């Protein structure tokens, strides 16, 4: 039999080392990574994770070493008495002690994570198939609605009220904290307190139908002043189109009935089925985190919606006269 | 009979040969097309094992499709729709058509051998369960070839799978798998009674093979775990087919109720899959260590303890649903606690290996691999049981990695170890050591390459159940590595399949007890005989083949119990639960097609219902009922020509037993325990809605009037009359018996009417709101059971009239009376809930 | 086959007190755990849903669960002690694998004792929840 304990050890460690290098050398992965925490709670959880990984690996190695000793290194019979002590010590005493400690640590952490005290900011997020309706509650009173994008001031505690009008989704920004489900008929809460500025990415974590994979969003953590400016701008109605092409685009947008589902504040488009587009040109992504925001992407999206995002509710407008799509794309990109 | 059997004298030899001939004739496996009418555990168990392994290969191919799709970012090999069907079926088939059935199949195959029994007590029930499993499994799996497979995930969360799914996918899942759950329950009843009542004389509870301890625990778990899912399926299908709004928020429903019911089933199910695999390890390790297990009682502790605690874990699949932290904490605590018995088992195995002289073998190679994989999966399990960490890990590839470490290490590797270990027992040929080692290393390396990186993929932010991911996400390389590993793993499985299927005609029949094991199943002759054991031995040790001198010789020579079949009937011994004193010589039925027909008609009921062909479904269900009634009428509770039988060694046992002494009574009792746990789940649903709503029942709910109380009175009277009829039958007071039972049947009808009349005349519309729907579903449950109770009462009337039941031979009325105890509890609870609770709420 | 052949005790197998034995004693420890677990969970669910509200304190329910825990632990300890006494019956030592009523009696006792140990720890684990968490949030 070729039971090579050493080989396996080496393989494990080399794999682990390769993975670690992979993890920490490349930067682009951090945006959606729970291992690169950027909030108070995510840091606590990541610390907990690394401690558990360390402890777990040691336990695994010891168990393997015992197995190796008993079956390979010294397969001859040893005393039953020592075997019984092995059960008592390794199977009973050690696990009880370790598990008790770990459980107490976890229990002490839970109230900290679930506390909704001392809130600086409140945001309502509804998960819908397959995008995010985001509503900021402002001090001025009038809520500000946008979609598929969340911006947060660094160092402040933001309370999310999470709902869903259709199926169950789950709201998750890995670098900022754990996920919370969005369940029809319920309002769940989540508090995030970012500690670093930067751009992150969130995703739906609960399987929610055909395009579950394409339900993402961008998150930007900003300095509080910059955040206040941004929110102010978002509260304004849309800018009138500047270029000739954009004006044509606006006409086409309204003529083709886009306003039945989409709102562009300041125009007659006031539909609420789909995302609010008042400032869509200023956003960090299009189609719930799947396309960049530029005229080409808009053209592609409007023309091939269903091909890009299977079963999406918005129909594809590929049948429009070919000058209308670029015009609409221009109009939408100018909605800064 | 083997040549080496030595007899004391020619006279004994002549007798033994004549006995063996009669025994062989009684247990002969049918030939030709009639082969499929076989019901003996060796045939049914083999088919069952083979079919569930084929489902494993099918689900494995689906897994390869998943890995092919995810190998590179933005892949368009599979469409979103196809991918979602593929992963849904992969999970469903692995869990429902491989994980659980594989253990049932294995146990049906080897448990009687381990207990030195000739067969399980209800061979036809096993056959019925197998055919149900085959029909339902093919139906569910086949749907993907028509693009009609479910795509809601194996957990089928509403409202995605209720209001937001078109097509028949969810119905195929619900009805197809409910049908299979019936066969799991049938197997559970069979195995519990098998372990408790068919042990050989002398095999006291402290001498049972560890395997049977695990099977007892697991079958018991099935009784409490599967019924909540059946109840959930009922609610779900009522919503899909008839618009009863159990999970529809706009009419007061709540999708979380499904999650509770699903995971009350779903978490214990993981242990239902895992524990039998540990049972195999507990069988193989002592053989490899050449000594009895160290810590037998500790393993019993672990099996029973895990069985209990695994029911306190279900909410850890719901840690992110926004429940109060303190509720999560309870489940987090139980999830940590369950690690203790799991660790105990592992250390018992290590201790046994340490204390014994360890001998290497291919089965042990797979066990060692299982240990390395499972321990890691167990440790990540302890991690995700800590709720804060689960908030991050939940629904990511970290969990995919964790669950595959647990299930492949905790189930697949031990099962393959079991296949290598038990293959000679079934086919008298050993599998190849060389291929075994090649297969092992391919699987072991492939598995770790595939799944170890997934821990990182998940924590880097990749959610589960995504059909694609973008190139800039950074998941590409890790996924490519995983996909390569998956194909290496599949190559290892292919080697195993080849080893099993390759022609072995030239290979010599292997020697008896090839591994030098100590447990009874290795009494098997090479090549095997249909009778199982030549004579049923007296057991004095946990490892009788090691400790009892000449055991094999004496068994072969027919020197123990039941060496003969004078009447040409199939017989096995029934013994007491604790001390295994023989108390009955049970006649078990032989080959029949009735079980197959009953399964086909039962399948028709579920399959036609899936396509909303309700008249055909009802017709098929009626045929199933008639087939089962004919089966019961002709083949059960047969009054024997002579009352007792000499089973050898001067022991004479009754052939007929009723009440708590009979296996049928135990089967009814166990079935009804499972039935009650489904009913309790419905009651749980009622009170769940009460906690969710401020007004439950809603203010405008109409009063049910006196009807529910009238129903209760009628049914309690019917119950009392049934019990009285049992007594009158014992007194041989025929006219009194007919009068009491007849009146009881009439009261059953009256009670059923009254129960229906309450909500009906109050004008409660089940589609209007979840309250009337909940009341109606409880009423519906009772009506179905009252219907069954009525058929039982009429059946008992007919049995006595036909002379198939007498004052002393009263199995039927005793079992029916037992059913009615549970009926009375069900009805009293229902009336208290639907009529009583609104008064106090 | 075996390296340490065990011999039966010389004296006749002693008959344990109470000839009727069942598996119910074996499962009573875990059953108490299950009852404690379920009652605690239900109590807290109803409390948070109907009494305190989702942001409210656990308050008195913590004391109630404390009392329940004390009762459960007492029950488990008593059952476990009963098991231990059965295990110590007569003169034999582990592993209780002789084909005698005495060893069967001792085996059931020892297993009962072990299960009570596990149930005790598991009950304490569950009770720890209300030690560290004080609100319904």
UniProtKB/TrEMBL annotation, chain A:
Where it sits in the cell: the answer is: Membrane
Q: Which Pfam families match?
A: COX2, Cytochrom_C
Topological relation to the membrane, as annotated: Multi-pass membrane protein
Which cellular component, as a GO term, is one annotated location? membrane
Record-annotated Cytochrome c domain positions: 244-336
What are the entry keywords?
A: Copper, Electron transport, Heme, Iron, Membrane, Metal-binding, Oxidoreductase, Respiratory chain, Transmembrane, Transmembrane helix, Transport
Q: Which GO terms describe its biological process?
A: ATP synthesis coupled electron transport
* Annotated GO MF terms: copper ion binding; cytochrome-c oxidase activity; heme binding; oxidoreductase activity
- Source domain of life is Bacteria
**Reactions performed catalytically:** 4 Fe(II)-[cytochrome c] + O2 + 8 H(+)(in) = 4 Fe(III)-[cytochrome c] + 2 H2O + 4 H(+)(out)
* SUPFAM superfamilies, sorted: Cupredoxins, Cytochrome c
What CDD domains does this protein's entry cite?
A: CuRO_CcO_Caa3_II
InterPro entries linked to this entry: CcO_II, CcO_II-like_C, Copper_CuA, Cupredoxin, CuRO_CcO_Caa3_II, Cyt_c-like_dom, Cyt_c-like_dom_sf, Cyt_c_oxidase_su2
Annotated transmembrane regions: 52-73, 85-108
Q: Is Oxidoreductase among this UniProt entry's keywords?
A: yes
* Domain Cytochrome oxidase subunit II copper A binding residue range list: 118-233
Q: Which family does it belong to?
A: Belongs to the cytochrome c oxidase subunit 2 family.
Job description of the protein: Subunits I and II form the functional core of the enzyme complex. Electrons originating in cytochrome c are transferred via heme a and Cu(A) to the binuclear center formed by heme a3 and Cu(B).
Recorded protein name is: Cytochrome aa3 subunit 2
TrEMBL record, chain B:
Q: Which domain of life is it from?
A: Bacteria
Q: How does it sit in the membrane?
A: Multi-pass membrane protein
> Could you tell me which NCBIfam families the record lists for this protein?
CtaD_CoxA (TIGR02891)
EC assignment: 7.1.1.9
Against Gene3D superfamilies, the record matches this protein to: Cytochrome c oxidase, subunit III, four-helix bundle (1.20.120.80), Cytochrome c oxidase-like, subunit I domain (1.20.210.10)
Task: Show the PROSITE patterns listed in the entry.
Answer: COX1, COX1_CUB, COX3
**Record gene name:** ctaD
**Compartment list:** Cell membrane
Q: Give the Heme-copper oxidase subunit III family profile domain ranges.
A: 589-839
Task: Name the InterPro entries on file.
Answer: Cyt_c_oxase-like_su1_dom (IPR023616), Cyt_c_oxase-like_su1_sf (IPR036927), Cyt_C_Oxase_1 (IPR000883), Cyt_c_Oxase_su1_BS (IPR023615), Cyt_c_oxidase-like_su3 (IPR000298), Cyt_c_oxidase_su1_bac (IPR014241), Cyt_c_oxidase_su3-like_sf (IPR035973), Cyt_c_oxidase_su3_a-hlx (IPR013833)
Instruction: Output this protein's name.
Output: cytochrome-c oxidase
Query: From which organism does this entry originate?
Result: Halopseudomonas xinjiangensis
Protein family according to the UniProt entry: Belongs to the heme-copper respiratory oxidase family.
The record's GO molecular-function terms, alphabetically, read: cytochrome-c oxidase activity; heme binding; metal ion binding; oxidoreductase activity
GO terms under cellular component = plasma membrane
Q: Which residues form the Cytochrome oxidase subunit I profile domain?
A: 27-552
Please provide the record's keywords in A-Z order.
Cell membrane, Copper, Electron transport, Heme, Iron, Membrane, Metal-binding, Oxidoreductase, Respiratory chain, Translocase, Transmembrane, Transmembrane helix, Transport
Reactions listed under catalytic activity: 4 Fe(II)-[cytochrome c] + O2 + 8 H(+)(in) = 4 Fe(III)-[cytochrome c] + 2 H2O + 4 H(+)(out)
Its annotated pathway? Energy metabolism; oxidative phosphorylation
**Any one biological process term the GO annotation gives:** electron transport coupled proton transport
Q: Where are the transmembrane segments?
A: 44-66, 86-111, 131-152, 172-196, 208-230, 270-289, 296-316, 328-353, 365-387, 399-423, 435-456, 476-498, 592-609, 615-633, 665-692, 704-725, 737-756, 776-797, 818-837
From TrEMBL, chain C:
Presence of keyword Transmembrane helix:
yes
**Name assigned to this protein:** Uncharacterized protein
**Transmembrane regions:** 23-49, 61-84, 107-133
Keywords for this entry? Membrane, Transmembrane, Transmembrane helix
